[in-house]
Design brief:
Elements lengths: L7 H5 L3 H7 L6 E5 L2 E10 L2 E10 L5 H12 L4 E6 L9 H9 L3 E5 L3 E9 L4
Parallel strand pairs: 3-4
Antiparallel strand pairs: 1-2, 2-3, 4-6, 5-6
Length: 126
């Protein structure tokens, strides 16, 4: 999936059915957003948008975080849950781990998922 060339507003303007079909499949997808290339899996469970990230290359400008928060608010969801599996990689990205910890993610064991950097944040008002 390629998100290059689209503004955040254009991405969020996609019809919900199309966005769900492209990204909210609860299946792994690889995509480029901002300057990041991401391997992740995204789904909605109850009132929570879950972003499960296996690999993040480059980036750091926060495009995915901003997009996730805006999408959750637009859909009336209460929370965004981050699950970053950067703990046990063959070649761990220590810079990424430090950045995630600075953003408040902590090592947590998620039932059925395992150990990851984790944080659940309120999506905020629509």
């Amino acid at each position: 999936m390629l998100f290059e060339g689209y503004t955040a507003d254009e991405r969020l303007a996609l019809p919900d059915e199309q966005l769900r079909a492209l990204a909210l499949t609860d299946e792994p997808v690889v995509f480029r957003i901002g300057s990041s290339e991401v391997l992740g899996q995204f789904t909605v469970s109850g009132d929570t948008l879950i972003l499960e990230l296996a690999q993040i290359d480059d980036g750091g400008e926060g495009v995915l975080a901003a997009l996730a928060s805006r999408y959750a608010r637009q859909q009336g969801l209460g929370f965004v849950e981050w699950r970053v599996h950067a703990l046990h990689c063959a070649r761990p990205n220590l810079r990424l781990r430090r950045m995630m910890e600075l953003k408040g993610l902590t090592v947590h064991t998620v039932p059925g998922v395992g150990e990851c950097l984790w944080r659940r944040v309120a999506a905020g008002p629509a």
